[in-house]
Amino acid sequence: MLTELLTGWIAHQRWFAGKGRPIDKLDIDSDIELSRGLRHLIVSVHQAGTHDRYQILLGCCADDVPDKFRHALIGSGFYDAAHDADLTTTLLEAMAEGRDIGPLRFRHLDDVHIDTSLRSLVLGVEQSNTSLVYGDAYICKLFRRLIPGVNPELEIVNALAARKAAHIAQPYGWIETDLDGEPTTLAMTQEFLANSNDGWALALASVRDLYAWPQESASDAGGDFSSESFRLGTATAEVHHELADAFPTGVMDPPEVRRLMEEYLRRLEQTVAEVPQLAEHAHVAEEAYRRVCEVAHEVPVQRVHGDYHLGQVMRTPTDWVILDFEGEPGQPLAERRALNSPLRDVAGMLRSFDYAARHLLADHPEAQNLLPQAAEWAELNRSSFLAGYSAGGGRLRGEDAVLLRALELAKAVYEVGYEARNRPSWLPIPLAAFQH
Ligand SMILES: Nc1ncnc2c1ncn2[C@@H]1O[C@H](COP(=O)(O)OP(=O)(O)O)[C@@H](O)[C@H]1O
Ligand SMILES: O=P(O)(O)O[C@H]1O[C@H](CO)[C@@H](O[C@H]2O[C@H](CO)[C@@H](O)[C@H](O)[C@H]2O)[C@H](O)[C@H]1O
């Protein structure tokens, strides 16, 4: 039976958020034929009293699934159609034509032309969703876990594109349906940034260079990244300005700041319960949150990126472009759309420099000897990023340092939970954040 096949398959998908917990039941809520051999499913996965919805493109064969789709096999006669370029062409065509197929609405932005002759490939990167790259022109991200409402990424990118903002990838179209009576984004198509590299890959190349020549300082090593960190800081400040212009802004008063710290404390306790290795470090975060409460001042707030790290920024031949304004995938939509301090993004990127510096040490035979280089690389790039952020007009004042430290540790707590669930061998990286 299809539901049984899907239950066995979904638990092993990278994008499945409920890993590590048994699935009690899977229901198919919606099953729409998009074209011959292609069905669009929305399924509900029930786990210990909670339930999450996911979307699946189901390829269906009358006979056995062809060998070329073995890697995408769901079970007898069914496979993940995201991997079948003959079927995914339907998505592009329907978007170009602005079609409705049953309850699914395929839309494109005014004034864009979509070339429907392009064929897709699944992007082979670790991600929370599934992206299809058509030719080298478009990237269509299928949001796997569905949360009722317009996805913040679509909302933000469309608003910034309408203002002709720099540092974003041009949006083309999207797919939506109604979930619980709310228009809900299922997918979004944007310009594919060909000939570009993501910040994580570039940062790792720099770190690798440094570790190959440990006698050099981080600023003298061949692949110095600090001028890129500076430009990234400037681009970040510019995007923050665009967001502040395009959406409402506000001010968090001291009692609200204290409430935010209480919320971070609650998340810390929850994460300690899930990941006992965090317990011995919890006091470091508690102390940082307490300091914020002591010196609490008014904090300007606005729409922010929300899950900002080196994997979310692309270096094109000309500049940095920022992707994935979706917020933290696990948080409720209202929270991801809420106004926040832009320092939260700054903190996210600072953490990411730490990740890049430490990641390659995990299996390195000289790990102990290279620790000072790792720290120097992280420090150099963190301070270049902050200098670029200020140069771009980003607000960074002396009194913000205490909040920034707390936001960094709150991000590290999130990362501890994320790594424990998704990549346990990476857990030492965020845990190290509590040691300095
Ligand atoms: N517009 C784009 N052009 C080129 N590559 C992209 C584009 N959007 C995403 N990518 C690549 O896909 C990766 C994952 O994208 P992201 O939006 O962060 O997905 P997810 O939210 O599923 O993690 C990025 O790190 C980048 O390598
Ligand atoms: O890009 P996503 O929206 O899927 O974000 C999630 O996955 C990220 C990992 O891919 C995770 O980021 C963490 O690992 C990065 C290196 O892989 C590192 O650069 C980030 O600093 C670190 O937070 C992100 O937290 C998670 O939400």
From TrEMBL:
Q: Which pathway is recorded for this entry?
A: Glycan biosynthesis; glycogen biosynthesis
Gene3D superfamilies recorded for this chain? 3.90.1200.10
A Gene Ontology molecular-function term? kinase activity
Q: What is its EC number?
A: 2.7.1.175
Q: Which InterPro entries match?
A: Kinase-like_dom_sf (IPR011009), Mak_N_cap (IPR040999)
Superkingdom per UniProt? Bacteria
Q: Which residues form a coiled coil?
A: none
Kindly name one Pfam family recorded for this protein: Mak_N_cap
Q: Where is the Maltokinase N-terminal cap domain?
A: 9-84
Catalyses: D-maltose + ATP = alpha-maltose 1-phosphate + ADP + H(+)
Give the first-level EC class, as a single word. transferase
An annotated GO BP: glycogen biosynthetic process
Task: Give the record's keywords alphabetically.
Answer: ATP-binding, Carbohydrate metabolism, Glycogen biosynthesis, Glycogen metabolism, Kinase, Nucleotide-binding, Transferase
Q: Which family does it belong to?
A: Belongs to the aminoglycoside phosphotransferase family.
Its subunit composition reads:
Monomer.
Q: What is this protein called?
A: Maltokinase
Q: Which organism is it from?
A: Planobispora takensis
